[in-house]
Amino acid sequence: MKLRGEVAVVTGGARGIGLAIARALGDQGARVAIAARSSDEVAAAGEELSRGGLEVLARPADVTREAEVRALIDDVLRAWGRVDVLVNNAGATGAIGRLDECDVDAWKSAVEVNLYGTMHGCRAVLPHMRSRRRGTIVNLAGGGVGGAGIAVRMSGYVASKAAVVQLTEALAREVAADGVRVNAVAPGAVVTAMTAGIVAAGADAAGKELYERTVEQRRSGGEPPELAARAVVWLASAESAPLTGKMLSAKWDDTAAMDVADAARSSLYTLRRIDRVMFAEVSRSSQKPEARKP
Hints:
Blueprint: E1 7-11, H1 16-27, E2 31-36, H2 39-51, E3 56-60, H3 66-80, E4 85-88, H4 104-132, E5 135-140, H5 155-175, E6 180-186, H6 193-206, H7 208-220, H8 225-236, E7 247-249, H9 260-265
Parallel strand pairs: 1-2, 1-4, 2-3, 4-5, 5-6, 6-7
Helix pairs in contact: 1-8, 3-4, 4-5, 6-7
């Protein structure tokens, strides 16, 4: 088992991607603490994981409230004495609609949950990880962050998720000397409560393109959440060391075939996704981009 004896915390762990991540971490030997805003949902999820033979701690916590996140980490430390892995998975769609027409408070809620919630989790666990000089943080980026696949009329969501990736890169550099690794996973088009919200909003608010794409995604089943869970387990394990400050696509990045040392040096697995087609790596000696022929 890749994570035998380790302790992992998963926010938004009561359903969907978060529950799949918690189960995958537990299946690899970790003791898992899950948190979600709904006390009923998180308790039911904890019972489900326990019935599967996992050692679980289930706690209600709202990631937008720093005190509740700190209390969650304190509970885990009291129960198990350590936190080796933090997965900041809790997320919210926020406003769906044109920027100049949508509800501003709903737009801000995406930032509060996705970005502030991730920041609160990192702040709560970093003093402990630094003191032990080891730890892994995995943040959840959004499906379709950047590029042609970006979700229109969900600007609060995509902006907050892009910010999560930049936070990941910045924090990875900040804590590298402390033995803490920070990476992100883009889970892909997974069918979740968020996609149900897009369908419920309708084509007028979501826009014809996003609405029809989401309806088809839900009809076909979308990407399995286990893909994201597998990527998180890999990033939480020693197999991915020394990778830090990177964003992996759960669907497209083959970790089994990845040269980790090469990936650690490359800009490919970042928000910029330097691909040597539209962009090229910059030579440290010349500081000039490599020439590319059309």
